[in-house]
Design goal:
Length: 199
């Protein structure tokens, strides 16, 4: 299964992924990700990766993989066809079911992702940061606006099953995940797994 988490900068994409990742590991599942999740450090089912090469070489069977800002990892609509990215593209996208992998990724826009990944995505989660109004209705707020931790903040998640156009919406309390990861962690651009040239 392939799922995408889409939203503008600061909308809660990585926080939503953290929530999914933490629940997955708490239930006994294995996780590979490129984000530092504070709560999972030291857990044998949590593996933090820093490069495409690590991901390609790892055993991924029965694992949840979350790649934050996937376009920086070579799966954008322009660079995924480069030779050094093809192995990752083929393994991640077309072998998910056979490896029994749940692949989650985040991106700011769905249209800039590699077409093959877009076509294989089963579920899209569109996220928006909100606060509760005086009448208890959720009010969307500017994504990159810093929120005082004393203010109760929520993430609105609109879930869309692409094949059947079935959608539902749920909210979770963002304050519970403020310390789960470093919100300023920078993802470095990955240029693919280049084969060593023989001399």
């Amino acid at each position: 299964m392939i799922s995408g988490i889409i939203g503008t900068q600061g909308s809660g994409k990585t926080m939503t992924a953290c929530m999914f990742c933490i629940e997955h590991v708490r239930a006994g599942g294995k996780l590979i990700t490129n984000i530092d999740i504070n709560e999972l450090v030291g857990n044998p089912n949590y593996t933090k990766i820093d490069s495409l090469k690590q991901l390609v070489e790892m055993d991924k069977v029965n694992t949840m993989i979350f790649i934050d800002e996937i376009i920086l990892w070579g799966l954008d609509c322009r660079s995924s066809s480069q030779k050094e990215n093809k192995q990752l593209t083929m393994e991640l996208i077309f072998q998910c079911r056979k490896h029994r992998v749940k692949l989650f990724y985040s991106a700011q826009q769905f249209t800039i992702i590699d077409k093959r990944l877009r076509d294989q995505t089963d579920i899209l989660f569109e996220v928006t940061k909100c606060i509760k109004g005086v009448d208890s209705r959720m009010i969307p707020i500017i994504s990159n606006l810093e929120i005082d931790s004393s203010i109760e903040c929520f993430i609105k998640v609109e879930m869309l099953h692409i094949a059947g156009n079935i959608s539902r919406t749920f909210f979770f309390r963002a304050n519970d995940y403020f310390n789960a990861y470093d919100t300023l962690q920078i993802q470095k651009t990955q240029y693919g797994v280049k084969e060593d040239k023989k001399k």
